[in-house]
Amino acid sequence: MGVGSKHNLFVARLLALLIAAVSFVASCAVADELVDGIRRQTEAYRQKLESLARWCESQGLTEEAERTRRWLHPVLEDRLLVPILPRKMGTLEPPEGESPVRQDWYRRWAALRKEQADALFALARGAIRQGRAALALDLALAALHENPDHEGLRRLFGFQAYSGYWRTAYEVRRLRAGDVWHERFGWLPKGYVARYEQGERFYQNRWISAEEERRLRSSLQNGWVVETEHYRVLTNHSLEEGVRLAEQFERLNEVWSRLFIRFYTTDAQIRALFDLRNRPPVTNPVQHRIVLFRNREEYNAALKSRYPQVELSVGLYDGATRCCYFFAGPGFDASTAYHEATHQLFQEVGRSVPNPGFRCNYWVIEGAAMYLETLRQEGDFFVLGGIDTPRLLAARVRFLQDRFYIPLEKFCSLGMEEFQTDSRIGALYSQAAGLTQFFMHFDGGRYRDALVNFLATVYLGRDNPSSLSQLTGVRFSQLDEQYAAYMRSLPNLPMMRIEETTRESKSDLGQ
Ligand SMILES: [Zn+2]
């Protein structure tokens, strides 16, 4: 990347949300009409936004000018931004109670966004016709970010309009059944809300006090069960904590399913999504199981017999019971929760073999989980990855200062046991984290699709030690060189040492 400071790193290189996809395609196709079309469209849009920003300035709307210019946000080279889609309809309606000139600005801006959304959607359909499903999806998502109320695009991503909101089929089913979503109590019959808020609880067909319920649910067998679209959380801590965790995992699920849609759908299925004559697919999502113990002591006690070293962990996914285990209170760690829940998603969505990575390629299983554990929210975006996240700092120190590196050909030959029992396990995890960042972000993301395909191959058990080289179409030795160049191109590291007792040795006891 050739940047000298952390600050410069965030300076825009290219313009639109979809450039990563574009540069990936551009790198493998010499003359490409579709990519040229996307570039032209993006540039035309940028110019229209710039004229609108100038108009704002002429009207004394400095802040609005700034916001208009910022809309085509810079692509950050080292992290992935996934737009958060608003649920409430009417994003493009001018806000009420504003001055006429501000309303005028908003209307003009909204008109440009709608026009851009239609153009991107047309390009997405063009991509589908050319059999380029991944690019089509990126374009469709960028279009939906422009116009969140575009009905065709909403349908494509599984939403339907319901009482002024965009809802999934699951949500509509619950709402029709008379439930509402309560931010503290989760899904609840509408008629219960007032009593819940006053401290009453419905328990086995009668109303009792919240304290009484706490006492009755203090053992896990009789704990609270929180159900959301993709999760079923059992906990004896509290209803509120169960709801909070389920919501957190729903966010992970949303990002994961957008990023790895190619992991669990075929090109034909994606093509079918784009055909608006089709009825929306009836989905019956898997509900992933989570257990949240009240505290660490109960977590240790319950899992000790199966995991003798459980005290060292702060959460784990158990493939045998297909369940994640965590504990509430001091010691709970959100990034570990995302890490383990990512193992669960890859394992349980799609048709995975019971022991992926057993013979070789184990690193990518950990790499993907470490990448997703960086999930955070910034403004209107979910953010993943980054060269200053703890795992990446460790990866850089180990590579640049300790000069630790196992050539990729050898690294890919490591199976689960070799990897997990290696005395240098911390350094292996660091390298896996560094490589995942590299394959996601190197050169505008040119290997991103290959990495997703690689993960799919490994989880299906159809991989071999040279799969990664085959899927990228690049020799291992060349990938080694590119990785080294990538690591060296990053801004200077702060002086630091790696604590050998970091989380990497504390999780994944069962994997
Ligand atoms: Zn792991």
TrEMBL record:
Keywords: Signal. Residues 1-31 form the signal peptide. The keyword Signal applies. It comes from the Bacteria. This is DUF1570 domain-containing protein.
